[in-house]
Amino acid sequence: MLVVHTLKFKGTARTSLKMGLRLRFLQTIFLGSVLICLDAALGDNISFGMPKFCPLNWTKRNNSCYMTGERFNGVTWYEAAAFCQSFGAHLVEINDKAELAFIDTAAQQVSWVDGPWIGMLRPFGDEFWILPSIRTETQDVDLNKMFGEIAKDSSHDCGGYNRRGKDFGFWRCRRGGSPWCELELATDQQNK
């Protein structure tokens, strides 16, 4: 955003676009210096834009980190997705039956005011659903069939759990829920 300052000299007002540009230039240099310092401090934690370690207070499982946003209740699916994106993450996406078991168990251990949103959408309102980050279904055929059956019986389009964190389903996207974020970690193959 370009900042335009109005300065008064001897009773006359003069808009200084140059001052705004100079200020923006100094802010950019300062931010660049901070990023260079952070890069030096973090060292090997960052790889191809993906972290190697979970942030503080996130739960690690396999190559992902999870953070429940149960204190941020009453948000739409879209607001929850934006919340996760602000951390460089996405809403939790269930990729296989082992992750489904983990998510089912974890969802019931959190005191949700509203149920958590997860990263599943029905873009066409039928039994076809997608994981937004990869824009397709999972590679787990059995899981796809199970979610397809749930989607077929629903008239809503956004994935989530109920308030007790027990029942998965597709809900109204504008219904109140809470974000549940997943951050993918860099793997050794990505480091090569």
Helix content: 25-40%
Number of helices: 5
Question: What's the name of the CATH homologous superfamily of the largest domain?
Answer: Mannose-Binding Protein A, subunit A
Q: How many β-strand stretches?
A: 11
Mean pLDDT score, rounded?
76
| Helix/strand structural class | alpha+beta
N-C termini distance? 37 Å
How can the largest sheet be summarized?
A: 4 strands, antiparallel
Strand content: 15-25%
Shape, principal axes of CA atoms? globular
**Name of the CATH class of the largest domain:** Alpha Beta
Rg measurement, Å: 22 Å
CATH architect. name of the largest domain: Roll
Number of domains: 2
What is the strand arrangement across the widest sheet?
5-6-11-7
Order of helices and strands: EEHEEEEHEHEHEEEH
Ranges with pLDDT <50 over ≥5 residues?
Answer: 1-48
> Which topology of the largest domain does CATH recognise?
Mannose-Binding Protein A, Chain A
Structure, described:
By secondary structure, the protein is α+β, with helices and mostly antiparallel strands. The chain has 2 domains: 5-46; 50-191, Mannose-Binding Protein A, Chain A, CATH 3.10.100. The protein contains 5 helices and 11 strands, in the order ββαββββαβαβαβββα. It has helices spanning 17-42, 77-85, 97-108, 141-152, 188-191; strands spanning 5-9, 12-16, 46-47, 50-51, 59-61, 64-68, 90-91, 117-121, 158-161, 168-171, 180-184. It has a 4-stranded antiparallel sheet, covered by helices on one side. The longest helix has 26 residues, at 17-42. The radius of gyration is 22 Å and the shape is globular.
